[in-house]
Amino acid sequence: MLNIIFMGTPDFAVATLEALLGWPGGRVVAVVTAPDGPRGAAASSRPRP
């Protein structure tokens, strides 16, 4: 079994992570994302998906 450390933040990374979680040949042991930061014109902080 392959131990996997997944690094991804954007919305499109979610599908990849879900595929890895369902893969019988691997085990996701850690997920690394960027910290919440300012977004949009108001520069308010929002949690990432």
What can you tell me about this protein's structure?
With 49 residues, the protein is α+β, with helices and mostly antiparallel strands. It has a domain at 1-33. 20% of the residues lie in helices and 39% in strands. The protein contains 1 helix and 4 strands, in the order E-H-E-E-E. It has one helix at residues 13-22; strands spanning 2-7, 26-32, 37-39, 44-46. Strands 1-2 form a two-stranded parallel ribbon. The protein has a two-stranded antiparallel ribbon with strand order 3-4. The protein is elongated.
List the helices and strands and how they pair.
Layout: E1 2-7, H1 13-22, E2 26-32, E3 37-39, E4 44-46
Parallel strand pairs: 1-2
Antiparallel strand pairs: 3-4
Uncertain residue ranges: none
* Largest sheet composition: 2 strands, parallel
Strand order of the largest sheet: 1-2
Mean pLDDT: 84
Give the strand tally: 4
Please outline what is shown here.
This protein is of the alpha+beta class and 49 residues long.
Keyphrases for this structure?
two-stranded parallel sheet, two-stranded antiparallel sheet
